[in-house]
Amino acid sequence: MTGVIILLVVIAVVVLFVISMYNSLIQLRNRVKNAWSQIDVQLKRRHDLIPNLIETVRGYMKHEREIMENITKYRSQAMDAKTVGEKAQAEGLLSGALGQLRVQVENYPDLKANQNFLALQEELTSTENKISFSRQSYNDQVLFYNNKIQMFPSNIIAGMFNFKAEEFFEVEDEKERAVPKVDFSAQS
Amino acid sequence: MWELIQANKRKSIVLFISLGMTLLLLGYFFGGAYYPDGGGYIGIFFALIIWGILSLISYFSGSKILLAVSGAKEVTKEVHPQLFNVVEEMKISAGLPKMPKIYIINEAAPNAFATGIKPEESAVAVTAGLLARLNRDELQGVIAHEVSHIVNRDVLFVTFAGIMLGSIVLISEIFLRSLWFSGGGRYSSRSSKSSGQGQMIIMIIAIVFAILAPILAQLLYFAISRKREYLADASAVRYTRYPEGLASALEKISDTSIDLKSANKVTAPMYIINPLKPKGMKLSDLTSTHPPTSERIRILRSISGGANYVNYQSAFNNVKHAKSTIIPSSGLTDNTQIALKEMAAVPIVLGVSKQNKRDTGDIMMKVNKYSFIDCKCGLKIKIPPDFKKNELFCPRCGRLHKLEQ
């Protein structure tokens, strides 16, 4: 009789343990999703701002067609990207192209005084800041979650219920992508 | 992050208990000084009632009162988009659950404060002078400092410790004044009875207490308030990853000689920099609610290697040549490397330019719902909200402008 009770208690403890482990994994995964949606909102906002920006800038900048074409191209690439890694890469390229545009703006005093452009630039700067601040918290959550599903004993539960590791949102070094690429191929 | 708030809470509890004990002792001695038989308990009762009423008021409408007293007006995003963006960035970075409400104070003195007992219901107020004078990075630094006051529950602390302190000061004041007017007569009539001597001792203790308690309570309050300013600076660095922003903002704010008219002794600890300039003599370090600004700036400027609490603490130790811990130990065990943002090579221009003054005026007008028209001749026409006509001529070039109502 006592043997049966002990067995029941052990089973109950194991079941409770599995349930709580499973719930905490779900909670962590939801946090990752939530953190990602914070980034996603800002990425979408940036995509929405770009057509307006190009429209405003076009009248002033006659010689920077290449930069603007790049921005448009990377924007549509970024919008088509599916996985976190792809998105991070495309968004990094987009940020780089926008950075080049920002450098060139210095040569156009009229544009720098345009109220509409200033308002757009403020929105764009803020959106980029928001992306970078939410990136930190997203990556923190991912690290926490990934650790949990790889470490013993929670990795057993993670394996049983098919919890997959999430991708980090990594953008290449900011300095690296801010440097405008110089193309010498036309000269030769 | 959570542990940091816990550590703050523990310290607050210690402070509250000691302030609460002082309050009760005050009540006891004052009651006893008047009515030796059981008067002490009546005194405690009254002390608690005063404290309870003040606490209830401040809990339910403290923020509203504070914002009203300082003349702050809630604004929409159109008034100052950048301010809204910066607050939202800091909300994300600090992980605040909800966007704080945003207020602008119509004053030229640059300053800012945050309020809100709970992070869910908070508000940030900045003066028009601050907005006109600071650039984006500096504004971000200031807002980060204010948001961290909300996150670290400093607003809660300042409100309730302030209320306790206020009650102590109030009760002592009532007691001392009542002595002045009626105490003498009552005392002499009682001293004719046999209990005179004991009564006199209690009276003396009560008087000494009435003089000392408010001073000691204030020193305690200020000491912890100063420590919290450092912690808020450290958090601001962590949120923005850009210590120079806050440093140059502090430099600009402290460079002004304009007093903030709407601030007073009670609301002073809420501001980013003490809004009441010491007149004539130098304010002693002990009685200041804020650490010396020059020191805060020097600590911020000597941060290197990262934007985490550890980096702030080591910069603090370097500047102060001391090993006092500003950051609760739980904040120091977090070794995550947070890269600092690269420095922008923008020279800091101190002093108030004409443009600053004009911008300050424009912001104030926007807050008061003026509308603006840019005339082709370069003049900015400001139209008050109660302007009735639907067209007007530019006062400089005479162009006709149609107004949309």
User: Major sheet of chain B: size, sense and barrel closure?
Assistant: 4 strands, mixed
Number of strands of chain B: 8
Strand content of chain B: 5-15%
Shape of chain B: globular
Q: In percent, how much strand structure appears in the residues of chain A?
A: under 5%
CATH class annotation of chain A: Mainly Alpha
Provide the domain count of chain A.
1
Helical coverage of chain A, percent range:
over 70%
Q: Secondary-structure element sequence of chain B? A: HHEHEEEHHHHHHHHHEEEE
Helical region count of chain A? Answer: 7
Task: Tell me how many strands of chain A there are.
Answer: 0
List keywords for this structure.
heterodimer, A: mainly alpha, de novo design (two linked rop proteins), 7 helices, rod-shaped, B: 405 residues, alpha+beta, 4-stranded mixed sheet, two-stranded antiparallel ribbon, 8 strands
Structure, explained:
The complex is a heterodimer of chains A (188) and B (405). Chain A contains 7 helices and no strands. Chain A is an all-alpha fold and 188 residues long. Chain A has a single domain, classed as de novo design (two linked rop proteins), CATH 1.20.1440. In chain A, helix 1 (2-58) runs antiparallel to helix 2. Chain A is rod-shaped. With 405 residues, chain B is α+β, with helices and mostly antiparallel strands. Chain B has 12 helices and 8 strands. Chain B has 2 domains: 1-343, no CATH class; 354-402, no CATH class. Chain B has helices at residues 2-34, 39-69, 81-94, 128-133, 136-151, 154-191, 196-240, 243-254, 293-301, 309-320, 329-332, 354-367, and strands at residues 72-74, 101-105, 112-115, 123-127, 371-374, 380-383, 391-393, 400-402. The A-B interface holds A 38, 115, 119, 122-123, 125-126, 129-130, 133-134, 136-137, 140, 174-175 and B 81-82, 85-86, 88-89, 92-93, 95, 136, 140, 239, 336, 338, 342, 374.
